[in-house]
Amino acid sequence: MKINVLKLSFILVLMLLSSLTYGQRRAKNKADEDTKNWRYEIQCLNVASEGSYIVKIYSYSKNKNVAIEQSKKNAIHGVIFRGIPQSELGCVAQPPLARHPNLEEKNRDYFEWFFSEEGDYKKFVTLTTDGAVAPGDRLKVGRKEYKIGLIVSVDMAGLRKELETAGIIKNLASGF
Prior knowledge:
By secondary structure, the protein is an alpha+beta fold. It has five helices and five strands, in the order H-E-E-H-H-H-E-E-E-H. The protein has one domain. Helix content is 43%, strand content 20%. Strands 1, 2, 3, 4 and 5 form a five-stranded antiparallel β-sheet that branches.
């Protein structure tokens, strides 16, 4: 009798763990899909030091924890492909590091790896709020979706150097 209870308990625990894992995986897959569509907004807050910018990234997600990791990717993507818009807070507009509109498509393999979980994008971005979402930065925009704003620091100088070394963008000294 005790063996049957143990087996039943073990099976129930496995079922619970697999359902939790499935739910997290599904949320991450949805977030990865949003990242592939690059659905975010970027706003400059401050120039931290030479070569670093503090930006607020608004990412869309059902889950705050998923939005945190996506915000890091979105911040790097914004710096590379969209640039940083000017703001009233003293930020001067920064053009995107990628000057050619089809650079992402042309270097698809590189950027798929770069933005993967093992990719190097993490070396150039840090959360400045430790993942804490301010009350006004979690806005409900759909039935089950939130627009979550996080503040991150982006090392633009380091990112530029990485992309130059990889041959993705041209060195500033090389001219146009």
